[in-house]
Amino acid sequence: MMVNGPQLGVNIRWGTVVRWLLLFVTRACYGSVLWLCGCE
Prior knowledge:
This protein has about 40 residues and is mostly helical. About 90% of the residues lie in helices and about 0% in strands. The protein is rod-shaped. The protein starts with a helix and ends with a helix. Keywords: Membrane, Transmembrane, Transmembrane helix.
């Protein structure tokens, strides 16, 4: 299975972006839950 360089680079870049977005969303949700629990 041959994958050309540019396509592979794009896939790696998108994978990194998705991973950071998931991390950011998870941390944001977790922080919101902690904040709400702290305000209760």
